[in-house]
# Entry
Amino acid sequence: MLQCKSMQEALSKYIRAADYLSAIQIYLQANFLLEQPLTPADIKARLLGHWGTCPGINFTYAHLNRAIIAHDLDMLFVLGPGHGFPAIQANLFLEGTLSQYYDRIPRNRTGLAVMAGEFSWPYGFPSHSNPEAPGVILEGGELGYSLATSYGAILDNPSLIAACLVGDGEAETGPTATAWHLNKLIDPATNGAVLPILHLNGYKISGPTFFGRMSDEELLALFTGYGYEPHIVDAYTEEDVHARMATVLDAAVSAIRFTQHCAREGTLQNPPKWPMIILRTPKGWHSIPELDGKRITDNHTSHQVIAEFAKTNEEHRAALEEWLRSYHFAELFDGERFVDEIESLVPRQERRMGNTPYARGGAPYHVPLNLPPLQDYAATATCNLDDPICGMESSMEKIGAYLRDIMKANEGARNVRLMSPDETYSNKIHAVFEYTTRSFVWPRRDWDKDLSHDGRVLEMLSEHSLQGLLQGYVLTGRHGVLVSYEAFAQIISSMTDQYAKFLKIARTVPWRGAVSSLNYILTSTGWRQEHNGFSHQNPGFIDGVLQRQSDFTNVYFPADANLALASFHRMMGSEEEINVMVAEKRPLPIWRSAADAASDIEKGIAIWDFASDEDPHMVFASAGDYPTQEVLAAISLVRKEIPAFRMRYININTLSGGGLGNSKSLVQKHEFADYFTSDRPVRINFHGYPQTIKQILFDYGCDASRFTVHGYEESGSTTTAFDMMVRNHVDRFHLAMEAFAIAEDQGVVTAAEAKRLRELYEGKLADHREYIIAHGDDPIEITNWSWQSRS
Ligand SMILES: Cc1ncc(C[n+]2csc(CCOP(=O)(O)OP(=O)(O)O)c2C)c(N)n1
Ligand SMILES: [Mg+2]
# Structure
């Protein structure tokens, strides 16, 4: 078909129109059709935007449209360099999607003026891809995440092709570098396909890119090595670049379909070799060749605004006008409609990339999970709380079993995945392998364990890739959870922050339907890193999350397996939140029955009666499993030493960006005293950095003299579990000594008695230190401590 001259004409007219529409967004506030000579009054006061990448995006979008029409493709477009948003917006306008979603942007000169005039304008359109733009599932402001996000989108969407335009600067990022390997996880029988298009416009902001300067041979070797079948389309050397791009795209579509067909009928012999395209175009293609003695087109200088002084400098304005007029836009658009050749490249409405239902959330792709009832998983032997072993359970093992059955219960929908950086076993969540496997479509060996071409678990030692997969999966309506070592979740903190920005806006966009929450479990926590020590001790990921939007971020600190199950159940059933659970993998005492746990997580904070007295002299609170164990141990010690001293214990299961408790049922200021009293001293034992809780308390107007917070003080090492807590002052002995001091202040014990107790406990700390140096482990009375009810 492409040999057909008219198709080439149509493509070049479409691209001319898209380039013009991209450019005027950056510059014009009036005279959008250039019906009069360009004057300073037509030009925006602040010229903001990125031009250089746009022509290559427009070229790609036009060609993808042609392929969609020719092959009736179900295609999603993921743009890596999100700063090329003027091009996205131009194409959404051209294909009619913008008018479909926004009445105030009709597909005529009025709408064109709104689109161009409000770009990069206060309270207008943002400069980068954003959730208000239909079809967008990635902002692309922070570069590097397009490829992994695309792979996430096509999982379990067998008819979908995600065309992913990766910038050559973006391709230098770590997250993109690792994401090329995701082809090894994609079973063509059950998933869609990603078509990566590496856009070599040769430059990033201020210099050449490595990829741009690599030879064709080097590029072909590299991407062949990654397992792709690379095709080069070179606008510099092709006699007819449209014919070449179309041929390559047709070949790519055929290859994808052939691979999928073979896999689906069970005849695929070798690991699939997916096609990819390496597209060389000049940066700022077809714009101003030179200005102020500098090369502009085909140079990094075209990256942002070219002719940037056009409002005040005549030479710049003349160059701008000449450039804009070179598109002869009036020949393509009469103010009401585009010429037929352009219309011929607009896919039917259901196939337009901006209108893809995959990127819209809600039905039909978002189906709430079928969550099995929790009672079947809860630790049933609710402890009598006096037995050291009774009810010891691993939260992570329980969650593994529950997740296994969630996968089973949603088998037909194929809409839940576990992302794990090589740690499904070590994080003790491997019960999932009783139902599923890890995906791996490359050669497998007989002795490989829990590996198959199609599994619900995606394992790769790249937190970036897993996060990208999860984002793509969730934003296309499905459900998942990423389980990470606590310390190394920090690697993706920034991705989470970017996602939170996307979510914040997406939640306000009326046509975006529901998507599930982005869920994390952090385990192998800092308190139990005897194996690994200081490098593995970092509870900082939650800080970034808690500083995000108050109305949709939650961090759960279940103190036992029943609370972990209840928290996980809430996370997996929730929508449009970011949820993080910090959970232990070793067995720990069960403090709460399933019913208690369900009621505790309603609010996310609860007074535990078994450890609390009426009219307390002081309040203890904790968030986290080991910190809770230590507080309860301290309470039982203090009760024994000073029977007349009354304490209350508060368990904080959930913090949110807005304060204490769940984002949907926060502890309000007027409720605060119901938990913490209005005047009693409070000691809080926290899983993470003390500062994290202090910020929250500040917002409740807490009096610093009444509250003391203990937590991880960056005092880590390779040492015993109990010593880690001693070093950070969250252990039972230090806490008990603080209670003795409060008892003295309140006149419950004499100064002499308080001194005696303090010295006794300082002695216990010294003995402990001596003991661990001599024996290499904590003494049994610490390890096997159990709660003693007051007799
Ligand atoms: C992670 C990250 N680092 C730095 C930047 C700043 N930045 C914005 S655009 C850009 C260059 C991008 O080059 P490329 O991917 O080649 O895009 P294009 O040439 O298509 O504009 C850089 C470094 C960023 N957005 N994200
Ligand atoms: Mg570039």
Remarks:
- DSSP finds 25 helices and 24 strands in the chain.
- The mean pLDDT is 95.
- Residues 52-53, 81, 83, 141-144, 167-170, 173, 199, 201, 203-205, 209, 283, 303 surround thiamine diphosphate (ligand 1) (CB under 6 Å).
- The longest strand covers residues 160-167.
